[in-house]
Each structure stands twice: as C-alpha cells, then as structure tokens.
Amino acid sequence: MADDMVLRAQRFVNETYGDVIGMTVTEDGVTGWNTMYALTRALQYELGITALSNNFGPTTLSVLGSKYPTLNASTVPSADFCRIIQSGLYCKGYDGGEIDGTYNSRVESAMAKLKANMGVDATFPGSDLTPKVFKGLLNMDAYVTVNSGSETIRSIQQWLNGQYIGRQDFFIIPCDGHHSRDVAKSMLFAVQYALGMADGVANGVFGPGTRAGLKEHTLATGSSGVWVQLFSAAMVLNQRPVSFTGSYTSALASAVSDFQSFAKLPVTGRGDFSTWASLLVSYGDQERAGSACDGVTRITDARARALKAAGITYVGRYLINPSTKSLPEKEIQPGELQTIADNGLRCFPIYQTYGRDASGFSYAAGRSDAQAAVNAALDHGFKSGTRIFFAVDFDALDYQVTDNVLPHFKGIQDAIADDGNRYRIGVYGPRNVCTRVAEAGHSTASFVSDMSSGFSGNFGYPLPPDWAYDQIVTRDIGSGDGAINIDIDVASGRDTGQGSFDAPRALKADTLLRSDVVSSMETDVGKYMESIGFPLDGGTKTYQHWKCFQSTVVDHDALITELSQRYNMRKALIQASAYWEMRHIGIEDESKDALVITTYNTTGKFVESSTGIGQCRGITAAWAWNYCISRGYTTGSVTDPGSDDALYSIWKKLYDSEEFDLRTVCMVHLWDSEGKPGGDHDENPLRSMRLDYTQSEIFEILRRYQGFGDQAEADNVYRMGLYQIMEKYNSISRNS
Question: Which of the four pLDDT bands, split at 50, 70 and 90, describes residue 380?
C-alpha cells in the first residue's frame, strides 16, 4: 500500500540527489530496496565518498563513524543530511518528523523506539543515531514481527543484537520473528564470542576453532548461563518446542532428546557437540557415520564390500547421465543393480539432468523429467513403488522456488499420476526447497543437500520434517579395487530404496505399436498437450489432436517403424517432431502455402515457406536429403538448392504427401545429428544416430529440427515432454 510520507521521501531523494548519485527511484509511495539504495548513496555523497554504492559497507561505516559517531539535533551536519535520516525512518514505518531537515522531538522519539525494537537501547541509550543503527535503518529489515513472526524468535534476535552489537563484525540483525541467513550467521558469531575469540578472529564460519571450542561446552540438566541461552536459542530457531532460557531444565533435556532422535543423533538429552553442530550448521557433525551414500561411480563387488564395511546400506545412483563426455559411470551401469542386491545393499534412484539454475525448471520441464525418469527406471529394472528423487541442485532463492521449482514439481506430480503412480516422488535439494515442495504436496520424502551449508536455502532453515537422506560430507573409502569416492548421507528410515530389481530392459529397436496401447497413447499425449495450452479441439489452430495423432503416429506406423529400424532412430523422434509441427499449423500457414503455389504457377518463382505436416522448408528438405544421399543413407536425385523449379518440386512433395513429410523428418534428424553440413547454420556434430542417445542428445535433435536461438531452446522443453510420452508407449511395445 502506498504511503504519502514514503512518496515524499522518494521525491526528496530524486529531486535532491538524482543528478549526483547515479540513480532515481520510482515515486510510488512503496518502500523497496531501490529507495533504500538511493538513500544509502545520498548518505555516501554527503559523507564525501566518491565511489558510490548500493552497499552500506565498511567504507561507509568507517567514514560515518569517524565524522559523526553520534548524530542528534546538535551534530547533524545539514538539513539534507537530516532529511536522509527522516526519509529512512518513514521508509521503516516510523515518524520522521515531516522530512523538514530538523532533528526534532518526533525524530528523537522515533529513534528511541527504533533502537528499542532492535534491542540495542541499553547499549545505545537515548535518541542519538549511531553508525550501526544507521546501517540498520537503511535496509529492508523489519524490527517488529511481520508475517506471523514468532515473538520468541524476536526476543532472541533482540537479545543477540543487545549482547553483541558492540563487537566489531556484528551488525544489527532483523527482529521480525523469523529465522534467516543473517540470524544463523549471528548465532555463529555469538558462539565464537562466547568462546573468547577476538574481533577479527571471529568470522561467523563453523571452522575448526569453533568446532574445537564447542566440544568443550557440553550442556546437561542443571547447566545455566550464556551457553544455555545460546543453545536454547538454537533449538528455538530450529523450530523445536522450547523456551528461550538460561537454565538447562529437564523439559529442555526432553526436547533435546526428541531433536536428537529426529536428526538421528545419539539420544542423550545433552547439549553435546553433535547436537550443537546440527543446530548451528546444515551439515552438522561431519565426523558422523552415515548408513547411506550417493555417488557417480559404478558399484562393483569390491566397492560394495567396502561400502558394507563402512556401515553403508543404502546407495543413491543416477537413472541417467545427460552427458556423453563427463562422469562415464554416473548412470547406473549394466549389471550394477544386481551387484548391489547380491551384496545386501539397497539402491535409491536419483534423477538429474542439468538443472543448475531456475531457468531449467518449469511445469513442462517437470512433466518431461517425470516421464523420462519413469522410462529410465523401467529400463534399469526398478519395481513399482520405488521413490525417485528429482534433483534441484542449485541455490534456489525463495521466489525461484515459488516461480520455478513448485510448478516443476507439479508437472512431475501430474505426469507420475498420468502414469498410474507407478513410482513415488522424492525431492533432492536445499532445505527450503525440500520443505516447500513437500508442503505443496508434490513429494513424499526429501533428500537434503546439507553439504552446501552456504546455500541460502540451507542457512537458517531447519531440517525438513520428511527428510529421508541427509547429505553431510564427501569421503574416500576402501582401498585398491574397492576404493570409491562417495557423499555420506545420514538415513532416517523414511526411504529404504530397493533391494531387488526386475530384469533391466534390453536396448532394442522399436517395433510396431501394440494395438492395445494406441488409445492410451492418444489420451496421454492429448492430456499433456492440454496441460501446456493446446486444447483437444485445436483451439486457434487448424488441426484437432485426434487428427494430428492419427497422421503422425497411427496411419504411418509401419513407415515410421521401418525408418526407425533402418537408421537406429527412436520412433518417438519422428513422431514428436511431426506431431508437434502439425499441432501448430494455423490458417496463416495454409494461406502461405496457397501463396507459394499461386506465385510459382504465375511467375515461376519459388517463395520459401514451411509446409506439410512436418512444417519443413523446401531448402531444409533439399539440404537434408542431399546430405543423406551423399552419405548413402538413402537414394534419390539431388536437389539443386539454387533452382526455383527444384526447390518448388521438393516443397510440393512435402505439401502433397504425409509419407514424404515423415521420411523428410527422418532425413532432417540424421542431417541435424551430424551438424547440418551445407546448411545455413552450423551445429556441433553429435554421436551418429543411435538408440542409446542421452537426454541431452535427444534434446539437441528435437531442438535442431525447430531451429536455433532462445525461442527454439525454450519451446524444446515442451517437445521433450511430448517425446517422453511417445517413448513410453514405444518402449512398452518393443519390450512386450
């Protein structure tokens, strides 16, 4: 909601400093980071700092402290300087005294209230403004509870501020009743100060000195003082039902036992090192044993024996490897699952492609990933009921979880449901990701990437209630043939993987579609297309779903099968490309076709346009067929790409013949796989066409059919989902 005084503050900073601070702000009456950045730059300008920055950093703090260690009615250097303070107060929700350039009684009252809310009024009594308080004034932190914040957490935040604001590297943290990265780091500073670390040594990092010190401060019933305050604060911040207290009572000991049981720590009821570590940092005590592991290395008999000797029972392995160039054993290898079972181990499958940033996550990509994971799980022999952990392997900020990750997992959930809920859904990722995906109802257990302690989604978040595996450290175990590098995971027992497996599906050529799956395939493809905005009735496009499916899958199944077998090409590559293009044909495309025919018949000139059910250009068809003829993949006459008559001839064949269209789709895929030689846009050659293409290779073939550039990349996410569904039914047919 717009605020008139915030609007006045924005006008003030624009009118007074807009020409000198390198930015202006939107005058909308709504406090935001840009307004705070502008006020920070205005302050720096008034301090004589020439390198202006959005950051209220060490230079700003140092210059402010040396020039104006306390600001009040007597020391504020100018009216505009005072207006910066008044503007900051209004942006924080306090009475700034009309932004009149006077450090008056209203400003004094607001400043005293601000410091009380921060918890630093005992350290900085009265109404003077000190440098660290000024830093806290010009940010977006709240010092009152917001969004249903906890009063207990707020009391901890205020206590931390009051206790440690005098230390060199401790700055005022929010007092909003919510745990956060800043609060978590302030707890580490507080522990280091309690250990006696000097300024400049204490750094908020859970390093060897901090670990060693905590091992000397085990707490038990009867303990009291600042260490108990810190420990109980850590319990509260981890959402344990305790009071913030300085006395280690039997009630606190009982709650500690409950936490230890939840986190799979030794249950002692004492505040020992392992418990301290689990409360303060996501990976906890990295010397712990774990009964699970995950890795990118094949499990051989020797390695399996080494794992068992190290106390490992559960092994996480990857369903696919999207790359042909790195980590050659990342994907489960032939015979590996049987080796795992024969050695009394159990395997939980992980699905991960390249999703290293938010752009790789969307509803459509989730549906595609889910079906690809199902196909791969069946290929490897995972039985129904297995939980597949889908990876979110990047530091997803909270808004990215909302905008990208949750829709992605809704796509996974919908696709798994459409597959009959054959497999269960798990999520791998930082704590916040796992918790939010579970709360949205999209997963049934979490595999937590707690080794990445610096991730914003781990720092300041508790261990998810549904955690199954907690990834804490990387270790080398075994020796000789049994040597293996693994990530150690603590297991909660919520997931136990699989200890026996179906026979893996052999790599086979495609066959004719089984008659009993065609109807289900048509329904499944239609549901997918509806979910991404293509209604069954065709909507604004010319062809309905049933017609496209009939033309690109059913009517020419024998031809597509023959092409697939001849060229070691998955049928789904031909089906998906042709179906996708046919679904996109509209009235405007038919008008272009008519123009091509009319122009040629009246002038003899060929006007290029995509045509046919595969929506291929004449020149593209010519390049692809010419190349395939030159390689001996097929026979026929070479088309002169410089001849209007020749181009029109091949274009007209595309226009007239669905069979020729589908053959052309196949030729274009072969040409694309070898880098489009002779075309107008070179691509890197892939491996020659084969049945064991990786997901990235399949993605490239489908993308290259459409073209290149950002739009082709974005659209191809949807094509991949279509491919996976079609591959599902082709795989059923060839494996029956």
Answer: very high
Give the DSSP per-residue string, 503-517: PPPP-----PPPTTT
Q: Are 295 and 333 in contact (CB under 8 A)?
A: no
Residue identified by tokens 């030729």 is 667
CA dihedral of 299, 303, 306, 312, whole degrees rounded to 10? 0
pLDDT at 124 over 90: yes
Q: What is the pLDDT of residue 355?
A: 63
Task: State whether residue 475 is helix, strand or coil.
Answer: strand
Domains of the chain listed by start with CATH number: 4-140 (no CATH), 182-280 (1.10.101.10), 292-491 (3.20.20.80), 518-734 (no CATH)
Question: How many secondary structure helices (H) and strands (E) does the chain include?
Answer: 28, 8
Q: pLDDT tier at 140 (50, 70, 90 boundaries)?
A: very high
3-state secondary structure labels for all residues of 339-364: HHHHCCCEEEEEECCCCCCHHHCCHH
- At residue 710 the predicted structure's pLDDT band, cuts being 50, 70 and 90, is confident
In 49-65, which positions are buried (b, 16+ CB within 10 angstroms) versus exposed (e)?
Answer: beebeeebeeebeebbe
Grade residue 1 by pLDDT with cuts at 50, 70 and 90: confident
As a whole-number percent, the residues of the chain with pLDDT over 90 amount to 94
**Which residue spans within 583-637 are E strands per DSSP?**
none
Residue 736 exposed, middle or buried by CB count within 10 Å (0-12, 13-18, 19+): exposed
If DSSP states are collapsed to H, E and C, what string results for 564-580?
HHHHCCCHHHHHHHHHH
Is the model's pLDDT at 732 over the cut of 70? yes
Asked whether the beta carbons of 290 and 490 are under 8 A apart, the reply is yes
| DSSP category for residue 559 | H
Q: Rounded distance, CA 525 to CA 534, Å?
A: 11
